[in-house]
Fold this sequence. Notes:
The chain is built from three helices and five strands. The chain is an alpha+beta fold. A five-stranded antiparallel sheet has the order 1-5-4-3-2, covered by helices on one side.
Amino acid sequence: xxxxxxxxxxxxxLGVPPxxxxxxxxxxxxxxxxxxxxxxxxMQRRCVFRADDDKTYAVTYEAQLDAGHYELGQPPxxxxxxxxxxxxxxxxxxxxxxxxxxxxxDEPDPDAETRTVAEHLIDMYEEGGVPTRLARQYAVDWxxxxxxxxxxxxxxxxxxxx
Length: 162
């Protein structure tokens, strides 16, 4: 796992971490700011940013809990970072399909048998939160990448069922 060390000043120049997670929308370097977990007096967040070497890195940091109008004290000192440098891991964005438990449908989908494999893949990506345009592209890319494997697996048997 490739890592790089940044000084706190370098991270501050890049806007890492943002003052508010919603500031990501207006930043050219900060790409995402996600909640990782909630600790007793703070929350741990993960900030993804583009560095000066045009690579994408992620650092975790501690931020003040957002509990509405309740006073929770001061935010953690130095974002929970100790020492003069902060280790950042190099990251890439990947689409992941996630299995979820859904309620049983009372009636089966009448179109389920007439839908194509691509349509089913697109639905899976969309259920995972991928926008429709990207879901279509990911489904086509997946089918293209695995077409040979599918033909080898099912061969002429699948063609004879048509």
